Amino acid sequence: MGFREHVNPAYQGLRHIPGRGPYPLQESFFARGFGTGTRHRGAAVVVQITTNLSYTAPTIAT
Predict the structure, then answer these.
(1) Which domain of life, per UniProt (predicted)?
(2) pTM of the predicted model as reported, rounded to 2 decimal places
């Protein structure tokens, strides 16, 4: 997994966006922009969650 952020440092991390008017805390909000991705999409993990005590090999449909 990869974690991506904007190349401009002003858009990285948690940013406080002030509200309008003389009271900047009113109508203000926080924003964070990021993305995730994988390089090797074929490298996957298979997990079996069951109450059966014996392991059953998964089948991959192609």
Answers:
(1) Bacteria
(2) 0.47
